[in-house]
Design a protein that fits this description.
Elements lengths: L2 E5 L2 E4 L4 E8 L7 E7 L6 E6 L6 E3 L7 E6 L4 E6 L8 E8 L17 E2 L3 E6 L1
Amino acid sequence: QMQLVESGGGLVQAGDSLRLSCAASGRTFSNYNMGWFRQAPGKEREFVAAIRRRGETTTYADSVKGRFTISLDNAKNTVYLQMNSLKPEDTALYYCAADRDYTRGWYPSRQLSDYDYWGQGTQVTVSS
């Protein structure tokens, strides 16, 4: 089992920045592709960003491209999501997830069903 613990969420105003962190334990972190997903009230969980296990490639949802940056620190077993120029529509519970099949392709998966381990989430609320 891999344990994932997110942190860094909060209440901010539109235009502000936040950095989310996800600390992993229990498995060899560098063997997993990592992703961030989010779920707003009344909506389905959606893909935000993902990074290949050693940072070789990243992929982003169109809605966050140019504003959010995913990165990882294998020495700290941590993946980050830097969120800039936040908008009210970014308000959601943000989840970190790990995909153990890093051979799936050169780019990490954007599919929820491909991720094996999930954190409990951290709330991000953006006021207008």
